[in-house]
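Good morning N.,

You mentioned wanting to compare the apo and holo forms, so I went ahead and generated the holo version with protoporphyrin IX containing FE. This is what I fed in:
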Amino acid sequence: MKDDSTTIVPDLANFDAHAPAFISDPYPTYKWFRENEPVFWVEKDYQSFWVFRHEDVKQVLDTPDIWVKEVGSESEPQNGALTKSLFASDGERHEKLRGLLAPLLKESIVDLNSTIFSIAESLVPAAKPGDDFNLIAEFAQPLPSHTLAHVLGVKHESWEKIEQLVEKVILANDPARGKLARGVGGGAMLSMRLGALVAAIAEEYDVLGVALHALLEVPDQLLPGKMISLMVDLVEKSKGTDVDFTIRDVSANSMSLSLAGYFTTTHVMGTGLVNLLNHPQSLAAVRSAFEENSSSDIMPGVVNEMLRYDAPIHVIDRFANEDTQLGGVMIKKGQKIAAVVGSANRDAEVFENPDSFNISRDTTGLLSFGHGIHQCLGAQMLRQELPIALECLLTRFPPFEIEDNPIWQTDPYFRGYTDLKLRFK
Ligand code: HEM
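and this is what came out, ligand included:
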């Protein structure tokens, strides 16, 4: 396959996944890793093997008996912690939960398009030439966040608090910006062990879990027929049957849906728009498709290419459930690996000329929604939200240009902007 990409040789002894140059453009470094060290131990901050080639990443995601979310995870968590969510569970428990929850999410997103449209319309600014607009804070975050609140069935006043807590958990995931960095200063934080970081996330997690659990005790804050109410109904219906689904499962899964269900969409709205504006021919094709009401023909390809080019979830963790070889490296039971889907999506073995943004390409092999048993349950929501966001930006917003350099968020596990300013013309 054709590959015109450039390569950057990383400093292997001091590889820093938070280095600003790497965060802003990790792809030349990924290329070097794919060609030279496809499975590489990242000591700093992560203490895990990072896996860069498409073939290896896919193998990890497709072999869930070897690559698990948690070693020994068939058992329930101890110390009164929440039960494991769909996202965090393995094996039979995962299969059972997925069978229970997938139909409920499907039911919760029936007729979602009109809701997304009206939220998007409400965010269109009444701007005059010269005005600024922060696309992330004023559009790309509220649109998917309010859409998710609707799907979960959480009323606005309660959702605001949940949203703030979700942001804290997401920040805590990033050693460069998270709780530890704020509490003890960035320099000291960098020498912290991963265990401390996990503990910090667990604390933020607990606060969010408590808030969501409290919400279940105020049913007037929950809309009937939507995801959380449907899960509560399932608890009632399953009493006295062999279905094992309790109110703790409702909290745990509400939490993981809140965490999984909007900020990734925010990211791809930002990167997708910038990538489109940087490719005038593609922009013209998308614009005319909207004008001619034929966007449904090209949108699946546009969405896939936006997801491939900059995967919003860049890295997916797993643990080895047994000693095993991966990409020629022996990984011991219990060791952690980080499957770098952002790199796999740019692998020339699968995608021709992978560093070119091409909305007409064949995106078979795309890994941005994961693969195998844990493949994203909410992909359909993104497939509805992103085209509506693009249509709104290109046909309802006053003409605009991107102002200055957008600012990347600093967590290598994700890819997106924290600040993306538009200036109206
Ligand atoms: C751009 C948007 C999104 C992206 C890129 C994305 C990406 C992903 C990825 C990569 C996984 C697999 C994680 C793994 O293998 O460990 C995943 C799982 C999941 N996603 Fe998404 N997601 C998006 C939107 C959503 C939305 C809108 C929802 C729901 C409202 C959602 C709910 C879930 C759930 C519940 C899982 C766990 C599935 C399982 O473990 O069986 N996601 N997502």
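The longest strand covers residues 315-320.

Happy to go through it together on a call whenever suits you.

Best,
F.
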